[in-house]
Design brief:
Largest sheet: none
Order of helices and strands: HHHHH
Strand content: under 5%
Helix content: 55-70%
Number of strands: 0
Shape: elongated
Radius of gyration: 17 Å
Distance between the termini: 35 Å
Number of domains: 1
Length: 153
């Protein structure tokens, strides 16, 4: 059994995917709008564009560092370049922004409500486990990085 992995409880895209299926159903059953239609769409599109750029930048930094993007696989290096200079979790931040952007495009307050438990599960079931793993694997290098770069922003 390979123990060189963080032991996350769920893959983050799957977590957001579950919420993305439930949110439109809730919105269909009990619509809760956020903003006027046009403002919601444009705000959502802007978040989607920012999210996509951040995700591509983060994935490129991980590829250049030669490490795995999938949290079910071992980290082979500590990535501190690209968006990882500003956030320890830019890919998770991009997922949250993507979900918020889609919620705005759907003009569904349910999406923003669903974001709270999704972020809690992500924090306790993924991020904290990854942080323990990275500290065990990279030791002082990771501890120093953690003191210099915030978890989200």
């Amino acid at each position: 059994m390979n123990t060189d992995k963080p032991g996350v409880i769920i893959l983050p895209p799957l977590l957001y995917g579950i919420a993305a299926v439930l949110t439109p159903l809730l919105n269909w059953a009990w619509p809760l709008n956020i903003l006027p239609h046009t403002a919601a769409i444009w705000s959502g599109v802007l978040l989607l564009l920012f999210s996509g750029g951040l995700a591509l930048w983060g994935k490129r930094a991980m590829k250049q560092a030669g490490t795995n993007i999938n949290p079910l696989q071992p980290a082979t290096s500590l990535v501190t370049t690209g968006p990882f200079r500003f956030s320890r979790n830019p890919l998770y931040l991009s997922l949250a922004l993507l979900f918020a952007g889609l919620s705005l495009i759907l003009n569904s307050l349910w999406g923003l409500i669903a974001l709270a438990p999704v972020l809690a599960i992500l924090h306790f079931g993924v991020i904290l486990r990854e942080e323990r793993y990275l500290e065990a694997k990279f030791g002082e290098s990771y501890r120093q990085y953690r003191t210099q770069v915030r978890r989200w922003l």
